[in-house]
């Protein structure tokens, strides 16, 4: 909670300092917002992922049968793993569908990425050069239970994060950034993916699990090994670049009513049954 508050207040401070409206934050990824659904649709975003990195997924309409288990059922828009359920067999899948039959929330079904490790890449686009990242961190999501195919998130008490950015050289980070750019012009994003190792990730051998476009948490701040001084420094660095990219949102970009629609959908998602 303290991290979130410091992120918010330092971001507002920097926006005021450089004379930009902090509410414009919600327009950073507005070109990818689906106004008719009122969400950043996972199905829309999935189409942005190059085929080599894309997992098999579709709307959960009950028509697609030949899945490789396990599979994950997700709200078409969700955040921080709210409403995600894992099914390890067709029977479990049907049980989950029965449990959620009364929900009007559209769902998608996604096959699992089978790579051994889970990584999160957080980035903010440069305000002065759109070919570069102003900030990019590479982190690993770990789970105390060490079970196969965990649903990791900041809301999972068994999940913790380790930042790996300093272990990568400039060429490796530039390569990872090139992969992130292939998805689209996101002002800010956190991409969850699975790969067998850092080396495999740098070589482009990975599958994307999620692309988060609505207030993505800088996950490196949750590394338990960081000192208070390191966290504060990282927060100020993050929000400074975030204020800069907010100020440089293209003037001809269509404004979308993102916040209130997303807030309403988020409330409904949080009411869905959670993974036991």
Notes on the protein architecture:
The structure is a single chain. The chain is 29% helix and 20% strand. The protein has 276 residues and is an alpha+beta fold. The protein has a single domain, classed as D-amino Acid Aminotransferase, Chain A, domain 1 (2-Layer Sandwich). Strand 5 and strand 6 form a beta hairpin. Helix 1 (2-17) packs across helix 6. The model has no long low-confidence stretch (mean pLDDT 89).
Secondary structure topology:
Blueprint: H1 2-17, H2 42-46, E1 57-59, E2 71-75, E3 85-87, H3 90-99, E4 107-111, E5 117-125, E6 133-143, E7 159-163, H4 170-181, E8 188-195, H5 198-202, E9 207-212, H6 228-247, H7 258-270
Antiparallel strand pairs: 1-4, 2-3, 2-4, 5-6, 5-8, 6-7, 8-9
Helix pairs in contact: 1-6
Task: Report the sheet-strand fraction.
Answer: 15-25%
Number of domains: 1
Shape: globular
What name does CATH use for the topology? D-amino Acid Aminotransferase, Chain A, domain 1
Question: Which spans of ≥5 residues are poorly predicted at pLDDT below 50?
Answer: none
Encode the helix/strand succession as letters: HHEEEHEEEEHEHEHH
Give the gist of this structure.
The chain has 276 residues and is α+β, with helices and mostly antiparallel strands. It has helices spanning 2-17, 42-46, 90-99, 170-181, 198-202, 228-247, 258-270, and strands at 57-59, 71-75, 85-87, 107-111, 117-125, 133-143, 159-163, 188-195, 207-212. The chain has one domain: D-amino Acid Aminotransferase, Chain A, domain 1 (2-Layer Sandwich), CATH 3.30.470.
């Amino acid at each position: 909670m303290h991290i979130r508050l410091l992120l918010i207040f330092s971001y507002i401070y920097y926006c005021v300092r450089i004379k930009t409206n902090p509410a414009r934050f919600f327009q950073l990824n507005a070109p990818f917002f689906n106004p008719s659904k009122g969400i950043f649709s996972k199905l829309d975003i999935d189409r942005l992922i190059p085929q080599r990195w894309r997992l098999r997924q579709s709307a959960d309409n009950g028509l697609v049968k030949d899945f490789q288990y396990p599979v994950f059922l997700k709200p078409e828009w969700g955040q921080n793993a709210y409403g995600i359920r894992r099914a390890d067999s067709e029977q479990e899948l049907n049980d989950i569908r029965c449990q959620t039959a009364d929900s009007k929330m559209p769902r998608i079904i996604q096959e699992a990425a089978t790579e051994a490790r889970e990584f999160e890449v957080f980035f903010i686009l440069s305000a002065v050069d759109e070919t570069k990242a102003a900030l990019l961190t590479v982190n690993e999501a770990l789970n105390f239970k060490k079970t196969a195919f965990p649903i990791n998130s900041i809301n999972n008490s068994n999940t913790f994060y380790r930042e790996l950015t300093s272990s990568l050289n400039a060429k490796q980070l530039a390569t990872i950034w090139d992969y992130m750019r292939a998805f689209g012009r996101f002002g800010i994003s956190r991409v969850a993916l699975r790969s067998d190792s850092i080396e495999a990730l740098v070589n482009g051998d990975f599958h994307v699990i999620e692309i988060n476009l609505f207030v993505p948490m800088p996950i490196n701040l949750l590394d338990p090994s960081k000192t208070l001084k390191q966290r504060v420094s990282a927060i100020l660095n993050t929000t400074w670049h975030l204020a800069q990219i907010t100020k440089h949102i293209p003037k001809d970009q269509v404004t979308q009513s993102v916040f209130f629609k997303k807030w309403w959908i988020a409330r409904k998602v949080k009411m869905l049954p959670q993974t036991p």
